[in-house]
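Students often ask why inverse folding is considered easier than folding. One informal answer: many sequences map to the same fold, so there is more than one right answer. In these notes we will look at a single instance of the problem. The structure comes first.
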């Protein structure tokens, strides 16, 4: 447990040093196939903002436990270190990936695109996306 706590402390310090609670990333989209008329319409959407959330895990807590939280408190999640994290776009599960650190920034390597509607429906029925 000491190694996990040391890793958490190190990541917390790196995040504080970055100076921002939110992260943004520019995503480059390659050329789209299809007619030039269709591409023109699609390109109109190229600068539309999307809400992207990465869910590390979940937990349930009583109000009294939430009120006891303080700096340095540890909240256990329902996933293990190394488990895939869920990637939501506009509150819809679209992918899973692994957490990495690149140039002292957290990032996600996408390992699976969720394109199965049944799987999305099951995820929606079981749990709502993070808010």
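Output (designed amino acids):
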């Amino acid at each position: 447990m000491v190694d996990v706590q040391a890793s958490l402390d190190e990541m917390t310090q790196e995040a504080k040093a970055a100076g921002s609670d939110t992260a943004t990333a520019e995503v480059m989209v390659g050329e789209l196939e299809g007619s030039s008329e269709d591409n023109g319409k699609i390109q109109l959407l190229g600068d539309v903002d999307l809400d992207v959330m990465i869910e590390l895990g979940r937990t349930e807590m009583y109000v009294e436990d939430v009120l006891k939280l303080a700096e340095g408190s540890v909240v256990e999640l329902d996933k293990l270190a190394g488990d895939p994290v869920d990637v939501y776009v506009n509150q819809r599960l679209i992918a899973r990936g692994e957490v990495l650190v690149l140039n002292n920034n957290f990032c996600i390597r996408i390992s699976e695109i969720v394109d199965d509607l049944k799987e999305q429906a099951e995820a929606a029925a079981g749990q709502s996306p993070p808010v």
